């Protein structure tokens, strides 16, 4: 039988007693950015689209391997096992951003 432990608090997760929660985070360069900025230029962009594609094509051929490997390296898939408590904590602050104030509800 497989044993899991929580990646946040390191507590072993007994899958008989509790649900193991899996967090998957995928980080990658978003190629859509170029597309959307082109949309912003409207009609002029349409007229220039062919030309732009040519330039892009050329650039792609120039550093063919470079671009491909750069994209590969930019993609990271992270996977964590969490216990129920840590799942709740994670969802409250997925990026682990530290706020200046304490999140203890003591001020309320
Ligand atoms: Zn935990």
Topology, pairings included?
Elements: E1 4-5, E2 12-13, E3 21-27, H1 32-40, H2 43-62, H3 64-74, E4 76-82, H4 84-92
Antiparallel strand pairs: 1-2, 3-4
Bound molecules: zinc ion.
Short characterization:
The longest helix has 20 residues, at 43-62. 45% of the residues lie in helices and 17% in strands.
The whole-number mean of residue pLDDT values reads 76
Class from secondary-structure proportions = alpha+beta
Give the SSE string: EEEHHHEH
Strand content: 15-25%
Shape: elongated
The strands making up the biggest β-sheet line up spatially as 1-2
Distance between the termini: 46 Å
Q: What is the count of β-strands?
A: 4
**Biggest β-sheet: count, sense, barrel?**
2 strands, antiparallel
Total count of domains: 1
The helix content is 40-55%
What are the distinct ligands in this entry?
zinc ion
Task: Specify Rg, calculated over alpha carbons.
Answer: 23 Å
Low-pLDDT parts are: none
Description:
The protein has 108 residues and is of the alpha+beta class. It has one domain (4-91). The chain is built from four helices and four strands. The protein has helices at 32-40, 43-62, 64-74, 84-92; strands at 4-5, 12-13, 21-27, 76-82. The model has no long low-confidence stretch (mean pLDDT 76). Zinc ion is lined by residues 6, 8-9, 11, 82-83, 85-86.
């Amino acid at each position: 039988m497989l044993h899991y432990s929580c990646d946040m608090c390191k507590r072993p997760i007994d899958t008989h007693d509790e649900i193991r929660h899996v967090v998957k985070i995928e980080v990658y360069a978003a190629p859509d950015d170029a597309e959307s900025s082109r949309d912003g230029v409207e009609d002029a962009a349409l007229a220039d689209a062919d030309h732009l594609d040519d330039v892009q094509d050329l650039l792609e051929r120039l550093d063919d391997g470079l671009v491909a490997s750069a994209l590969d390296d930019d993609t990271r898939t992270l996977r964590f096992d969490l216990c129920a408590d840590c799942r709740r904590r994670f969802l409250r602050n997925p990026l682990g951003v530290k706020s200046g104030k304490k999140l203890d509800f003591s001020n309320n």
